[in-house]
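Quick log. Single chain, no ligands specified.
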Amino acid sequence: METKDTVKRVVIADAGEEFRQSLCQELRRAGDIQIVGETGDGGELLRLIRELDPDVVVTELVLSGLDGLEVLGQLAQMPQRPRVIVLSSYLRGAMSDTAAEAGADYCMTKPCRPETVVTRIRQVSQSIAQDREQDRRQDLSARVTAVLHDVGVPAHIKGYQYVREAILIAVQDMDVINAVTKILYPEVARRYATTPSRVERAIRHAIEVAWDRGDLETLQKYFGYTVSQTKGKPTNSEFIAMIADRMHLELQTA
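-> predicted structure:
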């Protein structure tokens, strides 16, 4: 799938200055591609990548200084690297496989149409967005899990899974807190192949267990100093909303 809604930051590397300038000019016409750097030198390419943090690198294999394969080898050691499209006249025989094994995300043989390069840049950029969203979801899931453990919700009871899922949904869309019965419970129920009423009861049980066995200081940490052992337990929606709001704020400030 092509994505045209976000700007892709791209570095171009090719030892042929005329070809490089022509390609840069054509890519800029796409509207959603920003050329943030260009070079014909492998060492300079690595420097640009480290300094500019581009989304995508389009590189020839033959560069001055370090060649394209050497650049790919060094990029593989980076914790976060851009997507790499190899655009080369030397992708003959097993060279495409060699480039792919070295870390190229896509290989293209010169000559090719600039429109095709634009399409490939959009495609590999889409995979970046998907990976980032997956990382974000994993991070959020880990944070919610840590909070539930902290407040004393036992992981073995059914309500643990339901309240965890409800919080994750609420972080993505805080408006569901105003429609717990009509939207949130049915959505959790759908994901776990059960009924909304069972979801509601299981979450209620999970909260009651947490409140009975939880540490007062820990509960105050998450629910404020209005919490006391003599006051009533929060409703399902209050419990979900308080934790979801905390997670939402943490993600915004991260």
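Residues 185 and 199 are 6 Å apart (CA to CA).
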